[in-house]
Design brief:
Blueprint (H helix, E strand, L loop, with lengths): L2 H9 L4 H7 L5 H7 L11 E5 L6 H4 L13 H14 L11 E6 L3 H10 L11 E3 L16 H11 L14 H19 L10 E6 L1 H11 L17 E6 L7 E3 L9
Parallel strand pairs: 1-4, 2-3, 2-4
Antiparallel strand pairs: 1-5, 5-6
Helix pairs in contact: 5-6, 8-9
Pfam families: His_Phos_1
GO molecular function: sedoheptulose-bisphosphatase activity
Organism: Friedmanniomyces simplex
């Protein structure tokens, strides 16, 4: 099964909290989980924030979006603001006073997400924000603008379901690997002198679903072609870190010390 077919199949299955956010309704499961979590900032974190939940005209009709510039709808902007109230702030999942730098995809929808998620009134100055093509979405090539059904029909017509999984992409494994590896080196350069936790050291990435999954693979040293089961739901925030606070031991932070309020 192709990567895009797997993504298309999973995209059609929407969880209850995702449905609530799409309708701009309160989401009890998300708020209950995150409002009682306070991250242990003894460790450095790399937060990966997924833009692809927030509504655009294309997402409303189920069209795949990578390089095309599509604005958030008014409903999409309201969704981001609602999520930011839960996710971002003093003592919350992303605490601006602990952030050293933010890297944002230059796509308009990602920039709009960042502006609403981390408003200018927060403790994150403009000097700490970089817009970079390094984390722009993997170019969907022939899949751009197509619905899941159109993608399945295209693959069947061209006989791609049996082989040639990557041939539709206009940028390949090597190109994406190289650009992500350069970003990882840059992030480690920022965080290495901050490992003692005395100054803000967290990194935030605001980007898109496929490229962030690829980033997580490269963070752990896996090839993009390696079949590693992982889930990053639209609108989610994941955490990467370092084992033993050692810059040479990148890890996925699957659990963190919490205290209840």
């Amino acid at each position: 099964m192709s990567m895009m077919k797997r993504l298309a199949d999973s995209a059609s299955k929407e969880s209850s909290w995702q449905s609530s956010l799409r309708k701009n309704e309160p989401c009890s499961c998300l708020s209950l989980c995150l409002r009682v979590i306070f991250l242990d900032h003894t460790y450095l974190h790399i937060f990966i924030a997924l833009q692809d939940l927030w509504e655009t005209e294309w997402s409303k009709s189920g069209r795949s979006t990578s390089f095309t510039e599509v604005d958030l709808t008014a409903a999409g902007a309201a969704q981001v603001s609602s999520a930011a109230a839960v996710l971002v702030g003093s003592g919350k999942f992303i605490d601006p006073c602990h952030v050293a730098h933010v890297f944002v995809s230059p796509r308009k929808r990602a920039q709009a997400t960042m502006d609403l998620l981390l408003p200018s009134s927060s403790d994150i100055s403009k000097e700490k924000i970089t817009f970079t093509e390094v984390i722009t979405e993997w170019n969907y090539g022939d899949y751009e603008g197509k619905t899941n059904e159109e993608i399945r029909r295209l693959r069947k017509d061209k006989g791609w379901d049996k082989e040639q999984e990557w041939t539709v992409w206009s940028d390949g494994l090597e190109e994406v690997t190289n650009r992500l590896d350069k970003l990882i080196v840059h992030i480690k350069t920022i965080q290495k002198p901050l490992m003692d936790g005395k100054e803000p050291a967290d990194i935030v990435l605001v980007a898109h679903g496929l490229i962030l999954r690829c980033f997580a693979k490269r963070w752990l040293g896996y090839r993009l072609s390696d079949g590693i089961p992982m889930m990053l739901e639209p609108g989610a925030v994941g955490i990467l870190s370092y084992r033993d606070n050692n810059i040479n031991k990148p890890a996925i932070h699957i659990g963190t010390q919490i205290r209840m309020t």
